[in-house]
Amino acid sequence: MKFVRYGEKGKERPGVLDPLNRIRDISHLVTDIAGGTLRQLSRFNAMDLDSLPLVEGAPRIGQCVGGIGKIICVGLNYADHAKESGMPIPPEPVLFMKAVSALTGPHDDVILPPNSEKSDWEVELGVVIGTEIRYVDQSTASEAIAGYCVVNDLSERAYQLERSGQWSKGKSCDTFAPIGPWFVTADEVRDPTNLKMWLDVDGRRYQQGSTATMIFSPAYLVSYISQFMSLQPGDLISTGTPPGVGLGRSPPVYLKPGQTMRVGIEQLGEQLQRTVAYDPKKSR
């Protein structure tokens, strides 16, 4: 099933999509699409969704999972993206963290940080954990996956690659992790290793790929990461991007204020974001 969080930022309510993709309010049944609630969502499979309250109008859509404890990202997980980045295919998954303060809704503005010259885009499959795990085998790792979502893993490449240290500081700017629009339960995604992916900037398609070209599958990544840290319900794994990022163009192409990104994955929905310059007078 497909779940959403809708409403004013910081006051989102949980909802489910009915067969006509209309939002039905479920705040009287669950407190949020978050944490331990993720494993309770299967109860809606047996419900008549048309009997639930219909949400009128076009409310803001928030990040599709609330209360995320950590975002673990996987670098260079597509062989052709590693090639365009000028980096070798890694023998093991490349892991780094992205700050949870970067999370935002799928249609919210993306704020380019002050003095940013190399902000870039990356469409990625997000894996949402539903069960606390540690040291799990790959054969059982899929059982810990509650569902999937679209992630735009935005990056400031100068911060990431030219200012020494780890990648996280180029990945964690506010609004650099739009997720959603939907949290799609694992039972609805028949094969997460064969989903079409795309990303457009101002109507021009830059990324056109498929999760079929991943080096390390979602189940492998869940198992691998669990060897180094426990994973809790609601944790998000952003599993890497196919080719077509701005860094890989010749010459490179980067985001500027006033542009529009359209970001999507088959079965998981589509995001739409506008880029804006940072304004110290405005809060998020």
Strand order within the widest beta sheet: 3-2-1-13-10-9-16-4-5
In total, the number of domains comes to 2
Number of helices: 5
> What is the CATH architecture assignment of the largest domain?
Alpha-Beta Complex
The CATH superfamily name of the largest domain is Fumarylacetoacetase-like, C-terminal domain
Outline the structure in words.
This protein is mostly beta strands. The protein folds into 2 domains: 2-51, no CATH class; 71-277, Fumarylacetoacetate hydrolase, domain 2 (Alpha-Beta Complex), CATH 3.90.850. Helices cover 10% and strands 29% of the residues. The chain has 5 helices and 18 strands. Strand 14 (196-201) and strand 15 form a beta hairpin. The chain is globular, with a radius of gyration of 18 Å. It starts with a strand and ends in a 7-residue tail after the last strand.
